[in-house]
Prior knowledge:
It contains six helices and ten strands. It has helices spanning 51-59, 81-91, 107-117, 122-135, 151-162, 181-197, and strands spanning 7-20, 23-36, 40-44, 66-71, 74-75, 92-95, 169-173, 201-205, 217-222, 225-231. The strands form two sheets. A six-stranded mixed sheet has the order 6-7-8-3-9-10. Strands 2-1-4-5 form a four-stranded antiparallel sheet, covered by helices on one side. Bound molecules: adenosine-5'-diphosphate and magnesium ion (MG). Magnesium ion binds next to helix 1.
Amino acid sequence: MESTNNTIIKVAGVKKGFTVGSRILPILYGIDFEIQKGEFALLIGPSGCGKSTLLHIIYGLEEPSEGKIIMDNHDIWSYTKDWRADFRNKNIGFIPQQPFWIKSLSVLENIAIPAVISGKSFHSALPKAAELIELVGMKEWADHRPYDLSGGQQQRIALARALLLDPHIIIADEPTGNLDQKAGEELMNLLSDINKKFALTILMVTHNHEQYKYGSRIISMLDGKMISNELQKN
Ligand SMILES: Nc1ncnc2c1ncn2[C@@H]1O[C@H](COP(=O)(O)OP(=O)(O)O)[C@@H](O)[C@H]1O
Ligand SMILES: [Mg+2]
């Protein structure tokens, strides 16, 4: 597929092998796809097929053995580690399957943490954190401790935290993986609203067939290869 001005993420010939002892264990065999601005792309496939590895390569944490990741026209793996860290802070919010929290801080304070990581002042980020906690419908929990919340509530907070530095891309690795049906659906609705409202591009891994309806594109993987890549009408 030709890159267009609207291409925000381009994965080109990405291969990955992990060194295990004296052997190289191939994990990704050459992945190619593009995601356009504003898409809600779902990455699916059985456990162990390489989805998380690919997300980490796109997020700039795990180096590909071969191939390129072009984001916003930047070949991210041609730059330094510091450049990538800065690029991530400015452009990408990440939601893990299992969010990590600082126990001694409140929910609101945890949402403000990315400010500290990016070198801004914690206190200056609190008003923005307050705005975001409202956006995800968790205002009344601001003073609680994150680990006291349910899994679904924690993922709403993780989404608020991912949005703190105004990213234009959200990458989420099975954010609904540990949630029950209802909490999963609520998170998908929230992501879908945010995708539309802020023209935010989302790339997310899911296992759940019922969530496919939320995606504008479904990229399907099997054993380290992409087996289909389809735009959906919705
Ligand atoms: N650091 C690593 N070293 C060796 N093997 C790894 C490493 N990370 C992941 N793997 C292996 O790569 C394969 C794909 O893992 P992963 O990307 O986590 O799959 P998925 O997210 O689709 O479940 C698995 O077989 C996993 O054991
Ligand atoms: Mg995974």
